[in-house]
Amino acid sequence: MGLSGWLGGRELSKALFIKTWGCQMNVYDSARMADVLAPVGYRPVDRAEDADMVILNTCHIREKAAEKVFSELGRLRALKRRKAMAGGRLIIAVAGCVGQAEGAEIMARAPYVDMVFGPQTFHRLPEMVAAADAAPGQGVLDTEFPAESKFDFLPEEQGTQGISAFLAIQEGCDRFCTYCVVPYTRGAEFSRPAADVLAEARRLLKGGAVEITLLGQNVNAWKGEAPGGGDWGLGRLLREVAQLDGLGRLRYTTSHPSDMDDDLIAAHAEIPALMPFVHLPVQSGSDRILAAMNRRHTADDYRRVVEKLRASRPDIGLSSDFIVGFPGETEADFADTLRLIEETGYAQAYSFKYSPRPGTPAAGLDDAQIPDAVKTERLAALQALVNTQQLAFNRAMVGRTMAVLFDRPGRRPGQLLGRSPYMQAVHAEAGPERLGTLAEVRIGGAHANSLSGRLVEAANRDAGPPLEASA
Ligand code: SF4
Description:
The protein has helices at 24-37, 65-85, 96-109, 125-134, 182-185, 194-206, 234-242, 262-270, 287-292, 299-312, 331-344, 372-395, 456-462; strands at residues 5-7, 10-20, 42-44, 53-58, 91-95, 115-117, 140-142, 164-168, 170-171, 190-191, 211-215, 223-225, 231-233, 249-253, 277-279, 317-324, 348-353, 401-409, 415-419, 425-429, 438-446, 450-455. The chain is α/β, with parallel strands linked by helices. The strands form six sheets. Strands 1, 2, 3, 4, 5, 6 and 7 form a seven-stranded mixed sheet that branches. A five-stranded mixed beta barrel has the order 18-19-20-22-21. It is globular, with a radius of gyration of 23 Å. Iron/sulfur cluster binds at residues 173, 175-177, 180, 182-183, 217-218, 256.
C-alpha cells in the first residue's frame, strides 16, 4: 500500500507516482506537481503498483509520443482494474505536452483516465482531484491556457530536489519554429520576476542544492521584472544568483542563438560559478533550411555567436541539437550542416530524424518530406562526426584536474559518479561522504560517454602510478 494508510478511519496520506518523459522542464514540473499535491495528502512513491494516483508527465517532442502514452495507459488500466477488484482505487492522470495537445482524444479513447491537464494548469491539481473524487468516471479535462500564471499559485518549492536542482525561470516560446509544438503546448513566453527566482534559488540552496540550472524553453529570452523596477536580462540574473551563499555551480538551458546577447556572453567571462558549457541548438547548417524552419538566424549568425562566446570564455564547451531530413533538405543542405559541425567542434550533441508533429506548419509540407532511408543515412553520418568530436573532447581532459560534483553511487562498490563542468559523467574511487560535494579529480581515462579519474589527494598520495581508466 506504499505510504498510504488509515488510522482510526482517517486517511493519513496517499501515494503518488509520477512518470516523467522528456526535457528538464518536465522534470521540474513533476517536482512541482508533487509540491502542489503534498498539502492534500499525497506523498511520492517509486512504483505505480504502490500508488493511489499515477501521473504521466508526457513529452510531445519525440516520434509517436501519443502512441507511447496510450500503451502506458493500457498497462495502467489493468493496474486500475486489479486495484478495484481488491477494493482500492487508482486515479490516472495525463499531464504535460501530450495532455495539452491531445486532451480530448485521450478522454475519448481512454475513458478510464480520470484527469488530463497541460503544463500551465497543474497548480489547479487539488481542485481537479476534488472534482475527480466527487464524480468518479466523469473525467476532468483542464487544458485551457489560464489568464493567471501558475507560478503565482504554486506553493513554495520544497527545496527537496537534492544536490543538483532545476529552477524554471521562463516558459513558453514566441518563436514558432515550423517543426516545433512548444508554442502550442506551452503557450506564449513568460518570464518569472527576478525576486521570485532569487527566493526559489535561496530555498533550493538551503535544501542542499550545490548546483542550480535555470530552465526555460527559450531561457535566454528571459526578461524579468527587477526587484527595484525595470527589467533584467539573463546575464544580470545569473550575476545575482551567483552571489547567493552556498552556490557551487550555475547553468542555464535551453538557449536560442538569436537571444544570446552581449551581456549574457560577458557573464561567462565574469562569473566563476557559471559553468563553461552551453547548449546552443542550431538544428541545421543550411541557410535555406534554417529559413524553412523559421529559425530567424543564418549559419553565419550562429558562427558569430560561437566566436563571441569563445572570446569571452576560451575554454567553453558547446552542445547542440540537429534535425536531419527536414522537408526539402538536399544533399548540399546536409553537407552545410556537416561543415558547420566540423568548424564548430562540439563536446556533445543531440540529433534526430525529422518527424512531423501534428499541427505544426512543417508537418503539412507533404511534397517535400524526405524518405526515411535517406534520413537514416544522414543521421548516421552526422552522429559519426559528432561522436568523433565528443571522444576527442573527452580525451583532451586526460591529465587535467577538474572539479566534479558527485551526485550518485558509481557502478562498482567504493565508486562515485559525478559531473564535470562540461556535464561529462566522471567515475572515481571515493567514499560515500563525498556524495553531494564538489571534489578535485585528476582525469586519467576518457571514453566515448564518460571519464574516469582519481581524487586529487588520492592521486598525490600514490605519487606517480599511471592513472588508469576505471569505468
Ligand atoms: S525556439 Fe525552441 S521552443 Fe521555441 S519554437 Fe523554436 S524549437 Fe520550439
